[in-house]
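User: I want to check something. If I give you two sequences, will you return the structure for each one separately, not as a complex?

Assistant: Yes, each is folded on its own. Here is the first sequence with its structure:
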Amino acid sequence: MSPRLRSISTALGVVLLFALPLLPEILGTRVLVFRDAQVTHWPWRRVAMAALESGRTPFLNSAASGTQPLLANPNAVLLYPTVLFERALAPVSAFNLHYLLHVLWAFLGARLLASRMGVSSGSALFTGVAYAFSGMVLSYASGFLNSIAAAAWLPWCAAAALGVLRARDGRALARAALATGLAFGMQLLAGEPALTILTAVFTAFVAVLELGIARRERSRRDVARAVLGGGAAAAIALAFAAPLLLPLRAIFPLTYRGQHLYSQAAFGASPFSAIRALEWLFPQLGGNPSLVGSGMNWWTSSARGPVYIWCVALGVLPLVVVLLAAIGRDFWNRRTIGIGVAGIATWLASFGLALPLYRVLFSIESLRRLRYPIKFYLLTTLCLALLAGFAADRFRERSPMRRALVLLSCLLGLYVAAFVVAGPGHWLDARLASSLSGRDLPASEMLAAFRLAVRADAVVGAIAVLIAGALYFFRRPRRPGYALALLSVALALPWGLPLFVTAGARDSSRPPALLASLRGEGRLYVSPGTSSAGPEAFAGERPGLPRYERVARMHAERLLPATGEPFGISYAFDQDPDGSYGWYNRLATEAVRASGPEERSRLLRAYGARWALGGAEEAFPFFRPVIGVVVGGRRLILHALDDPLPELRWASRVHRRRSLSGALDLVRSAKFEPRTDIVLPGPSDLDAGSPPATHPASVTASALSPELAAGVVEAADPGHLIFSRTYFGAWKGALDGAPARILVANARDVAIAVPGGRHRFEFSWDRGPFHRGVLWQAAALACAIAVAAATRARRPRDLRPL
C-alpha cells in the first residue's frame, strides 16, 4: 500500500472510530447538554435562528436581561461558518456537529503541522490523534462552542505560518500569507480571544524555532520577506473577522469584562494543580461528567471551586511513546528540545498565580481582563502531541533497551498496583470513605463508581504500556505511526466519550411545566437558589450514580437562565458567566442579589419583571403567588406582578445621582416610583420635586423590536422617554428626525430627554460597525480569490492537455 493510501485509510479509521459511537448525536436524536452547551450556547442559537426566520438580523437578544448584544457576543459564535448547518440540517444535528467536526479538524490540523515540522506521514497522524483526543480538546468539545473551534484552528494557524517562513518567491509568499490570514481570521470568528493570543504566541515560537534551526540557510532578505508575509496575514485576518471585531469594539468598553479589572482571584481562576497530573495516567480521576456526583478529582471537588477543564489527560499511549523516546540521546535535537522547553513553560504557566512570574501578566491592564490560566495547557498538549510524532519516528532507530524495559516495567507495575488497591475493602476504600460521606449522594455508590473508574483506567493504561512495549521491542515496524494513531483513538474512547454529555433531543425539546403559566409579554426572574438539588431529586433512580441527563432536565423545568429562551421566555436578570454582558446590567444583577425581599422586588419591577420564580421559603413582596411546582424534590413558587411596567414609558420626575451605586440604592428604595420617575447621572445628588399637575403623557409606539423603538409622544411638559434596554454606546436616539443624546436611565436602561409638545422619537441600535465589517470581510475574500487565481500553479506548456 502506498504511503498516501495508507494515510487516507488511517485517517478514515480515526473518523469512524470517533463517529460510530456518536451516531445518535450526529443524527440529532441526542443533544449536548453539559454546562455552557445547555445554559447559553443552545438557547442563544435558537434565539438567533428565530430572529433570522422572522427576517431580522440578530443584533440583540431580547430574551436576555435588559436585552443584550448577541451578534457581537463572541461566545454566541453566530458569524462562524458552521451556522450555515442550520439551513441544511435539523437544529440538534447542526448544533452537535459544530462540536464534533472540530475535534476532527483539530486532528487534521495537528497532523499537517507535524508533517511540516518534519514528522513522517504515519507519525504525523499519531500527532493529530494525540492533540485532538486529548483531555483538553475533548473537554472543550463537550460544552464550549467557541473554545473548541479556536482550539481546532490553533495547529492550522501555526502550520500556515511555516509556509510564510519557507516561501522562496513572491508567489509562494502571497499564497502562504493568505492561508495564514484566513486561518487566524477563522479563529477570531470563533470568538475566543484568549486562545487567539496564545495561538499568536505559539506561532511566533514556531517561527523563531524554525529560523534558529535554519539560520545558516537564511538571509536577511528571507527574514524580511517572512515579516512582510506575517504583516499581510495579520491584515487579512483582521479584515476577515471584521464583522465580529468591529461590532465587538463598539460594545466592549461597556461590557463587564471591558469595564471591570478582574481581581487576582478571578484572573487566576481554575488553574492547573499538581494533583491533576495524575490524570495523565488515570484520565477518569477527574470524574465522569455523565454521572452526578463524580466531581473534579472526586475527593477534592467541594474545596476546589468550579472546574473549567474537566479532563487534562494527554493520552497514555502518546505519553509512554514520548517517554520511551526521551530516554535516548538521539531523540533530542534543536527542534525537540525547543518543543519540550515550550511544553514545560506553558505547563508551568497553566498553574496561574501559583507561579510567581504569572503575576507579571496581571500587572498588564490589557491582559488583566483574561482569565483561566489553564488555557496555557492547550499549548502544552500540542507540544506533547508534536513530541509524540517525533518519538514515533524514533521507533525506527536503535534505542536503549534496558532503560526502556525498566520504564515500561515501572509503569505496568503502577497500573497493576492501582487495580489492586482500587478493589473493594482495600486502601482506596479506607482513604476515601470518610471524605465522601456527608454528601448529597450515598458514599457507597460514589465509592463504587470511583473504584470502577480507577480500575478501568488501570486496565486501559496497562494495555497502552503493553502495546508500546510490543511495538518497541518485538515488531519494531518501519512505520509505527499508523498503528499508534488508531490504537490511541481506541484507547481514548473509554474516558473520552463520557465527556460528551447528552440527553434525548425529544425530551430536551419538551416545554417546561411552568410554561403554561407564563402567558403574555413580560420578563421572568429566577432566583439563583432554585438551581440546587438535594438527594431527594434522584429518588427512584436505578442503583448507581444518577445520570447528568436528569439534572439537565431539572435545569429546564426550573427555567434556569437561559434554558427557557428556546421556549419564548425572556429573563429579567441572567448573566453570561464569561463577562460579555453589559456592565450596567451586571451591576444591577448584583444589586438584586444583594438586596432584601422588598428592595429586590422594587428592582425587579423597575427593570420590567412580570414574574418571579423562587423557593417556597423566598418572599416576593408586591408579587402574588400563582402556582407551585415540585422540581427535583424542591418546591418552587411562581409569583406574578399585576401591574408590570411597559418597555417604553414616560417619566416626568427626574432624580440625579453622582454614582451608579447611589442610583441603584434610589431605584430600590420606597421613594422611587418607576412608573413616573427616572434617575440620571449628575454632578450631585438631587431628588425630584412634586410631579407636575398636568395630564400624563401619551406614548404611541409604531415599531417595537429588540433593536428598535419608534413612535409619537405627546406631553404638556418636558420629561424623559425610557426604553427598557441595557445601555451601550451603540444605542442611537432621534427626536423629530434629529439626533438625540442617549442617557443612562435608572442605572441600566436608555432614555432621551423630550420637550413638551408632540414629537416623533426613535431608539435604534447602530448597525454601522457590522455593515462596515461585512465590507471589510468581502474585500478580504475578494483579495483571497484574486491572490489564489494569480498564484495558482501552472503546468508547463508542453504538459498541458490538447
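And separately, the second sequence with its own structure:
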Amino acid sequence: MRVSLQWLQEFVDLPVGVGELADKLTMAGLAVDAVEEPGKEIAGVVTGRINRIERHPDADRLLVCRVDAGRGEELTIVTGATNMREGDIVPVALEGARLAGGVTIRRGKFRGVVSQGMLCAADELGIGEDHSGILILPPDTPVGADAKKLLGLDDVILELDLTPNRGDCLSVLGVAREVAALFKLPVRLPEPPPRLPADPGIGQVRVDIEAPDLCRRYVARLAAAVKPGPSPLWMQRRLFAAGVRPIFNVVDVTNYVMLELGQPLHAFDYDTLAEGRIVVRRARPGEVLLTLDGVERHLTPDMLVIADAAGAVAVAGVMGGEATGVAGHTTRILLESAWFDPSNIRRTSRQLGLRSEASLRFEKGVDLEGCLRAADRAMQLIADIGAGEPLPGAVDAYPVPHTPRTIVVRPERVAEILGVGLARGKVEEILDRLGFQVRTDGEELLAQVPSYRVDVHREIDLVEEVARLYGYDRVPETLPYGDTTPACRTRHQALFDRVRDVMTACGLTEAITYSFISAASFDRLCLPAGHPLRHAVRLANPLSEEQGVMRTLLLPGLLETLARNAQRGAASAAFFEIGRVFLPVRDGQLPHEGNRLGLALTGETPRGWNRRPAPLDFFYLKGVLEVLADRLGVDVTWERGAQPFCHPGRTARIVAGGVELGWAGEVHPDVTAAYDLPGRAAAAELDLEALLQAAPERRTTRFAGLPRFPSVNRDLAVIIDAAVPAAAVLAAVREAGGPLLQEVSIFDVFRGPQIPAGCRSLAFAMRFRAPDRTLTEEEVNARLEAIVDALASRWGAQLRSGRETT
C-alpha cells in the first residue's frame, strides 16, 4: 500500500517528521518498507504561458515557442511536441534545471535557433510514464510559480507492508485512523453534501439480491450528463503516487475513492443495463462473460455475478463486463458500492486467475457500514470535477444489516499476557483511541468493535491492539522461568531419523513434495473407478487446479519429481520421501493422517573406473528395503502382490508378523508413459506406523567369536513348480538344514527347454558348520538328503544337481 503524506494530511494532522512517523507506524504493526520522494531530483521547473508558436525555419518537425515564465523576458524554447496551443500553461525547465532521472537542462542550439529551456512532458517530471506530449496545466494556473510545489512533486510516499489481517489499512482513511490513534489526534472525514430524495421522473434502478449470504449490501446511485474525459491533474497525480494508472474521469473517481476510503466501486453504463435492473445472484451453469480485459470467463454456480434482466454483466467484486463498461459515448452511469463475501471473492478470483485491486480488498473484508458513504463521496467528486451530474437519491439494498460485535476484555488478563502492569483506565483509553466503544461491566470491559475492523473477533485480538499501541518497545525484557525437563526424541522421531539415515546411506536423496495434488493424478496412475485411493479430501479453496485434492499416497509427487529431473537431463535418480497421506473417514470427521515412506527410482547407478553401472530396478529397491528392515530389526517377508499402478507380476507385498507394511514394485509402463519417464521405474511405499509397531523397542546385538572349525560349502539345484515363491523354498531349506546350516542363498534361477514346462530350476549355495567340531561328510550328506526330501514332499521338487564347493 502506497500512501501520500499530502493526501494523508487531509484526514489527520502529522505532528512529527516523516522519519519518526515511519518508525511509529512500523512499531505499531504497519511496517514502512520505504520512504519515497518522487520530486527529489526536480529543481528549476516553473510554470509558463506559451505566447506564440512558430515553425522552425530550417526543421519541419520542430516548433519555436515564445514563452512567458514570469522572469520579465520572453524565453525562446525549441520543441518537437505538437499538442500545445498558444495561451496554454505548461511546465518549463529553465536553464540549469534538473528533471527526473538526473537530467540537467542546458542552453542548446537546434538548427541555428537557441533554446533557453525545455517544455516538460509528464514522465520528465516523474508523473507517470506519459511522453506523448507536453503536460498542459489548468488555464487558471499562475505563471512563474514553482511547478514542483504546484504539481505536488514535493510529496512524500510511504510504502507500507501490511499484514494480511489489516485490510482496513488498504486506504488513506485506514492509515489516518492509525496515525490519529498513535498521536491522540482527531480524524477528519470527507463530508459529502446532503443527498436529496430521489426524483421518480429522472430515472430509476431496481436492485434484487438473490444471494444475501454472499452480498449483504448493495448501494446504487445514478449520474446523468456524464462527460468522459481526462481527470484533473491533482487526481491523476494522487493515483500515480498510489501506483494506479489514470484512465479517464469516471473510472478514476472509482479508483480514487477505493484508495481513499477502502471501498471498491464499479461504474456501469446505465443505458446498457437491460430494464435498468441489477440482480446479484450466483452464476448459472455454463454462463460465460466477456470481462473488461477482453477475456471470456467461464463461470460456475459457486461464483457471484452482477446481472441485469438479460444476463451476467460483471463478476462480483473482481471485474466488470465489457458490454456494460463506461466508454466515450456514455451519458448516464450506475455506480455500484457493495459488500461481498470475502471467501467467495477469494475463491472466484483464484479460479478465474484474475486479481484486481478491488478483489484484494473484498478478499480481506470491507466496511459493511461504509458502502453508502463511499457512493456519496464518489458522486461528490464526479460533480466537483465536472464529470457528470449526480441524480438525487440512492438505492440501498441491505438484507443483512451489520450487527456490532461486543467483546469482553479483562484488564488483569491484558496485564498478565503483556507482562506490564497496565491500569484499567489505560486499557480503556487505548481501545477508545482505536475506535472501540468501551463501557464498564463490573470488573470487565465491554468493547464494541467498529464495523471497519473485520479482523477483531476475540479478547486476544484486543490484547494485541493494546500491546501495539502501548508500544512493544515498552514491554520490559524478562527471562523465562519454569520447570524444565531434559529434551529427548520420541520413538516416532527416532524412527524417522533412522529411516532417513538408512535411505541416504543407500544412495537415495530426500524429496519433499506437495500434500496437495491434482485429481488427474489418479487417472495417470491408472486407478480404476471406485478405487479406495481415489476417495481423496477435496479442498474448498485450492491454490490452483493442479492442487485440488489432498494426496492419498506419495507416489504422484515422487514420479513428478523423477520426471522433472529427467526433463533436465538427470535420467537416473533415486528419491525417498517421509510424509503424510490423508485418508478420508466417514461422518464428516477429519481425515486420517498417516505417515508413509515413499521411494521412487529410475535409471542406473553411476559408472566408476572399477565398476559397471547397475540398474536402479525392482531388485535394487528390494535391497534398499531389506537393509532398512535389517537396521530396524524387523523380520519381513515378501509376497506376491498387485497394484493398479505397478507392473503385473513384478509387485510384492511387504509383510512383518502377519501385518502388511506396504508394497514395492516396478511402475506400470502406462504410468511411466503418462509421467513422460524415459525408462523403467521402481517404487515402494511403507506405512511407518505399522513399521514402528513391528520394530522392537530395543534391538539387542549379539557378538560371537570367530569360528574355530572349518565350514563345508555345498551347492544344490532343484527343479520345482514355478508358482512356488522362492522365499518359501528358502524357508523350507533353512528348516530342514537344521542348526548346522549356517547360511543359504539362491545364486541361480533357470528356465529353458531342459526344464519341464511350468517349472524352474533354483540353485542354492549352502554353508554348513558346527561350533564345536569339524563336520564329517556323513553329517553334511544327511542334512542334504533331509533338504531334498523336504522339498520333494512339500512341492514335488526334483534334484537337478548337487556338488561340494570350497
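Because they were folded independently, the notes below concern the second chain alone. The mean pLDDT is 91. Residues 777-795 form the longest helix (19 residues).
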